Amino acid sequence: MCCSGWARPQRCSRQSRSPPACSCRGNMMKTPIPTDFAELEHCYDQLMSWCDVLQAIADFLPCHINEDLCDRISSGLLPLLLTTHELEKRLISARLGLIMDAGERAEAEERRRVGRLFDHGAAQDVVVTLESLGEGRCRLSWEAVGYQLRSLFCSIRGHIRSEREIMRLMQRAMAAAARLDNAIEQTEAA
């Protein structure tokens, strides 16, 4: 038996540890924008763990897949993905204006929305397939199952890479804005 000894990634918390933030782009921000994406990063780490599990399953097909593993993936993957998408909307989407003009922002948001929809649909398909595999009633070929798994984990990994790059750019923009605000305050105080 292969693919049965994997530990279940933990679901991330939905509670925000960040204060509400201003979405303005100006240098006179009265409400600080959180530079801490720790909760979202935790979700990304958990999703990457699920991707590793899915890749291991795909790499070892055809194999017997433990029903318990299928149940853990089925019950954990979609809630984690939905929580991650909610955090992305709250922490990233609302602040794209920090690093993009309005036209770029609209295009980027549409690409991100379509990517989230694809990932969610693909994850739902994988959950159904894994549930049927766990119950021994899957009608898909091993090649189709492997392709389905690879499609999902490759897409999720690419999505996370892109979102992390956006977060890095936002953190740089927020740090620059904070330095500018500090310089303005020092100038006004002088």
Give your account of this protein's structure.
The structure is a single chain. The protein is 68% helix and 0% strand. It has helices at residues 38-60, 67-91, 102-134, 142-189. It starts with 37 loop residues before the first helix and ends with a helix. It is elongated. With 190 residues, the protein is mainly α. The protein has one domain (38-189).
Fraction of residues in β-strands = under 5%
Sketch the topology as an H/E string, one letter per element. HHHH
* End-to-end gap: 73 Å
**Total tally of structural domains:** 1
The portion of residues assigned to helices is 55-70%
Number of helices: 4
Biggest sheet layout: none
Number of strands: 0
Q: Output the radius of gyration.
A: 20 Å
> Spans of 5+ residues with little confidence (pLDDT < 50)?
1-35
How would you classify the quaternary structure?
single chain
Can you give the mean pLDDT? Answer: 79
Shape: elongated
Class by helix and strand content? mainly alpha
Describe the SSE topology.
Elements: H1 38-60, H2 67-91, H3 102-134, H4 142-189
Helix pairs in contact: 1-2, 1-4, 2-3, 3-4
Offer a few descriptive terms.
Hemerythrin-like domain-containing protein, plasmid, mainly alpha, single chain, 4 helices
